[in-house]
Amino acid sequence: xxxxxxxxxxxxxxxxxxxxLVAPAPSLIAAQSSAIAIGAEGWFAGMVxxxxxxxxxxxxxxxxxxxxxxxxxxITGEHPLAGFxxxxxxxxxxxxxxxxxxxxxxxxxxxLVLPIVDMExxxxxxxxxDTGLADIYFSPFLASWHSQIWxxxxxxxxxxxxxxxxxxxxxxxxxxHITLEPAMAxxxxxxxxxxxxxxxxxxxxxxxxxxxxxxxxxxxxxFQAGKLxxxxxxxxxxxxxxxxxxxxxxxxxxxxxxxxxxxxxxxGVLFKPNAQTALILKSMFELETESxxxxxATWLRLIxxx
Length: 306
Fold this sequence. Notes:
The chain contains no helices and 16 strands. The protein has 306 residues and is mainly beta.
């Protein structure tokens, strides 16, 4: 058995996310065709474990009871999104293999992300749900580097439209397009137990396969700051931020007020019962959103090294 990683980390969390859509068809929620799951990472995002096989499993519960417009105000009245409610359960299986191969002085590794999602959406006029395998993530290139305090990891994820998609449905587990997601993660871990982490990602969306629609490009960050109290427990603050860089396009024209924005903060706790296993629980409250729901995301992450 191998320890998860140096000190109390044990986190090979560089480019994992859940491929889900919190969205009806683009005509109703233009901006919500993102392939990302913001907030999945945090603790030790830049620390990759030693060579060998590792398994991460992410559990997500997300709920929201309102949808905000492009000004950050909740949509009400007779709008189709008035009375908006959504609930998402997800389990994401992420096997990771870290090789002995060195690339630019860093350790090469690869992963596969398999998200299983259950989603329900309701509003004044919408009512739909679906359960199944969402789009799969894979990566042709990932690498990590380490120093005494700082640890980095980066590479490119490809999100492939493997899930079923019907643009007439309200709930889509698949995205109907390819997304390229370059990312860079960094972690600082000091001898006194203080630690900070951030993972920055950029999403480049190709055109949808079945309709003339292109989702906005986005930049988003998961971040964390906390302290390891002892060899088993750690506490901290977690959060995420996302910013759309442009409006979506449909039939060659911009979709007004479709640029997404969200900022969330919340507490988190780490528990490490042994050298091979770690559990991380965190809840993040969306303090401000634009062109997307506003709710609470709770993640439970299991990390195990074989």
